[in-house]
Amino acid sequence: PNGPALRAIGTTAAEFERDLVSNLYFERGTTMESASAQDVYQSLAVTVRDRLVDRRARTATAHQAANPRCVYYLSAEYMLGRQLRQNLQYTGTEEVARDVLKGLGVSLDEIADFDVEPSLGNGGLGRLAACLLDALATADIPAVGYGIRYDLGLFRQAIVDGAQVERPDDWAFDGSPWEFPQQDDRQAVGFYGRVEVEAGRRRWIPEETVLGEPSHMLVPGYGTQTVNIVRLWRARADSDAFNLADFAAGRSAEAVQEVLRSENISKVLYPADSTEFGRELRLKQQYFLVSCSLWDIVRRFHLRNSDWTVFADKTVIQLNDTHPALAVPELMRLLVDEYELDWDTAWSITRRTFAYTCHTLLPEALETWPVALFERLLPRHLEIVYAINQTHLDEVESRFPGDGDLRRRLSLIQEEPERRIRMAHLAVVGSHAVNGVAELHSRLLAETTLADFARLWPERFRNVTNGVSPRRFLRLANPRLAALISERLGGEGWLTDLDQLRGLAALAGDSEFQRRWRVVKRDNKLDLAAYVRAATGVVLDPDALCDVHVKRFHEYKRQLLKLLHVITLHDRLRADPGADVPRTVVFAGKAAPSYHAVKRIIQLINGVAKVVNADPAVAGRLTVVFLPDYNVTRAELIVPAADLSEQISLAGKEASGTGNMKLALNGAVTVGTLDGANIELRDRVGADNFFLFGVDAACAAEVRRGDYRPGEIAGSDPELAAALAAIADGRYGAGFGDVLDTLLGRDEYLTLADYRAYLDAQDAAAAAWRDPARWTAMSIRNTAHCGFFSADRTVADYRDRIWHADPVPVPPR
Ligand code: 26Y
Q1: Which residues constitute the signal peptide according to the record (predicted)?
Q2: Ligand 1 atom at minimum distance from 123 CA
Q3: 342 vs 203, 333, 339, 402, 739, CA distance in Å?
Q4: Which residues in the chain land under pLDDT 70?
């Protein structure tokens, strides 16, 4: 491709400026003199994007020629983060852009603030998907991420009177320059209807059809020419769906009813499932994603191949949790009903094609769908699920004859209290590989949650510990630290070979290096403080210990344990101002809209923050802030400023965690339990550089089985009793009796059991902080030993253990 792409690949200031001004003129229809800041942002984004388009074209050409095995990642969520700075970085045009804009009288930093983070995910699983795509492209592995282009995505979190309020996040309201829409590639998706038999073959005749309209965003690799894509589907109604007659008769709402019904499918991420409407919508979303994506995967296969027998050699489909598990019966339907392969051949292809990543241990988090709903929406898929189950249970019977109980446990169908389809079972049965996301998690999956399957097919189970993108979470989020590291390591090689950070360990005790390390942290804290002040009015001290608990709200993550610590500190400091080091506690995270118990915890945090921040007795010693609307952009601000990373989930509950990795990579020291990837983190950074506390997973399970009495713990620990009493007597706001009741009643997540050990760990952290040389050495060692947690290593593990996909280098122009 030597044609029009030539226009937009230059990286000199003159070329960049020419393209920027030309985009402003031809794309926005304006000139520098009359352009708004939004015009400049859009033109800049397109100018940068165009420099990736040429790489994308060459990538597609190279993939077409190599006909390689491709990785297709199916995920309900992607948390891509802002794109502008990333793409400036990956095209090496940041400095040029800055200079050109400056020459035009505009500041890059101001313009960059117009960049909007796509709201397409909710937490760890979504960000993991984005980190893996980044690392796949960086490793030159041909890959496509498939997802849904939610109009409103996850809600935007506002705090009103201390409580979470959900607002729609209309992330593409001003137009997203990173998207390439492809209206002409629309794909029809069926729902409902019936199964007909024609010449001995069963065929689904859907009753309703919705169109899937794709768009894609570019996923560039770092330091390579590869640009992969993430392809997102948006639901559209056929233009005939608009009822002209109704409209003509003045019934405008009725006129658009069908259009809205179709387009609701990609309206929001995880619609509330408290109503039948919501539950059906979620299942529709899942099938919508799967149907569009498989159609596209098959189409891509046929661009380069004609023989189904090689499908599984050319295709691996990774299921990001069970949300896309309908892909298993959908591929079977395509192969058997549409392409008329025999069942056994189709089943062998299907199993060899899929791999499944599980992200939970909590049995209550394993998805199931009522058979009745499934049958109504996807009648042919239900038949296929039943047929898969039949073969599966026959295999179980032949391997373990007469074990009816085992058959019941392994079945794809749960019988009681109502018949439901177990999506995790469907995913395991339909895949050749099943992985957990940290060593402990994978072990516990095989021992507990999926134990029967691990006994049946031990060879399918493996571990792939999560990782994070060092480009996103160190280079982009923390440019000051990245610059210091590059200076000392003599280059940026560490960005794609993170083990090189080990070279910093020798500098851990170097006082000049320590001083510079502290300056970076302090500057990052000043940036955070400026944002916090503007967003909340709270003033932060850049010299205080910055102690952060940032992640989704869930009871198992124990934000409440952190809050009990804060309350105890408040009490202690009122009696003795020297009882703790000056400390800023930052909370951030969203609660699921229907998860009442944790929304109450958010309210209590805000109640505590209000009282503590207004108490002159602790001024300058303790500050508490709840930063609203946690997302990738907010993480990029908080993570580089953190000194202490709170990873305090109840052992055995957090599958992996990835915030733990991002924070340690940025030199935060962890206070944490033996849960998820914390264990591997502690092994690597060293027990001396990690504040460990709490029961382990085995002990937690034992306590839960026994006769645990949280009330007795509260009664025998005066500081804990005082903290609970402070909540009860309304010091932080009246009416938090419900929060106390869950603690003193069942205390499901052993918050009280771990309270004392947690305070001791915090006291140890404070003692370390009092010795800056000691603390800084710990901080440096955390960064130095985080190489393992690069998403590049994670992708290499997936490649070697599951995908067996070879890199396809893309030649430079
Ligand atoms: C509503 C339901 C279908 C559902 C929606 C989202 C269920 C689960 C999820 C998301 C789960 C999630 O984000 N899990 C996290 O995945 C991370 C990446 O593997 C882990 O690090 C983290 O421990 C786990 O909680």
Answers
A1: none
A2: 13
A3: 14, 11, 9, 30, 57
A4: 1-8
The string of DSSP letters for 101-135 reads HHHTT--HHHHHTT--------SHHHHHHHHHHHH
Pocket mutation for ligand 1, best pick of 75, 79, 125, 673 (most atoms within 8 Å of C-beta):
125
Neighbour-count burial of 295, counting CB atoms closer than 10 A to its CB (0-12 exposed, 13-18 middle, 19+ buried): middle
For atom 21 of ligand 1, the residue with the nearest CA is 657
Rounded CA-CA distance 708/366 in Å is 26
3-state helix, strand, coil in the chain (%, to 5): 55, 15, 30
Q: Ligand 1: distance of its center to the CA of 546 in Å?
A: 27
Supply 527's token pair.
């940036």
> What pLDDT is attached to residue 8?
59
Rounded distance from Cα 250 to ligand 1 centre (Å): 46
| 131 touches 467 (CB < 8 A) | yes
pLDDT in tens, 12-67: 999 999 999 999 999 999 999 999 999 999 999 999 999 999 999 999 999 999 99
Cβ contact 783:664 at 8 Å: yes
Taking the C-alpha atoms of residue 641 and residue 339, their distance in angstroms, rounded to an integer, is: 56
Q: What is the pLDDT of residue 365?
A: 87
Give the active site residue among 58, 558, 599, 662: 662
Q: Respond yes or no: is residue 552 known to be catalytic.
A: yes
| Whether residue 425 lies in the annotated active site | no
| DSSP-derived 3-state class of residue 300 | helix
- The CA-atom distances, in angstroms, between 457 and each of 427, 547, 725 are 13, 44, 52
Q: How far apart are CA 193 and CA 383, in angstroms?
A: 13
Decide if 557 is catalytic: yes
Report which ligand 1 atom has the smallest distance to the Cα of 657. Answer: 21
How close is the Cα of 125 to the center of ligand 1, in Å?
5
CA of 193 to the centre of ligand 1 (A): 33
Count how many Cα atoms sit within 13 Å of the Cα of residue 246 in the half-sphere of its side chain. 13
> How many Å apart are CA 15 and CA 225, to the nearest integer?
20
| Nearest residue to 283 (alpha-carbon basis) of 205, 376, 359 | 376
Q: How far apart are the first and last CA of the chain?
A: 9
Q: Is the ipTM of this complex over 0.90?
A: yes
Query: Which residue ranges form the domains of the chain, and what is each CATH number?
Result: 1-66+92-116 (no CATH), 67-82+117-465+799-803 (3.40.50.2000), 521-779 (3.40.50.2000)
Burial class (CB in 10 A: 0-12, 13-18, 19+), 649: buried
- At residue 239, the pLDDT reads 86
521 an active-site residue?
Answer: no
* Distance from residue 122's CA to the centre of ligand 1 (Å): 8
Nearest to 289, CA basis, from 80, 128, 149, 124? 149
Residue nearest to atom 9 of ligand 1 (CA): 125
Which residue ranges have their beta carbon within 6 Å of ligand 1? 123-125, 128, 270, 323, 359, 365, 367, 437, 466, 654-658, 676
Atom of ligand 1 nearest to the CA of 466: 19
d(CA 657, ligand 1 centre) in Å: 9
Give the ligand 1 atom nearest the CA of 437: 19
Tally helices (H) and strands (E) across the chain.
34, 23
Taking the CA of residue 322 as reference, the ligand 1 atom at the shortest distance is 3
C-alpha span between 120 and 230 (Å, rounded)? 12
- Give the C-alpha separation, 167 to 175, whole Å: 19
CB count in 10 Å sphere of residue 56: 22
pLDDT value, residue 364: 85
Tell me 279's DSSP state: H
**551 noted as active-site residue:** yes
Q: Which amino acid is at 652?
A: G
Q: Whose CA is nearest to atom 8 of ligand 1?
A: 365
pLDDT at position 1: 42
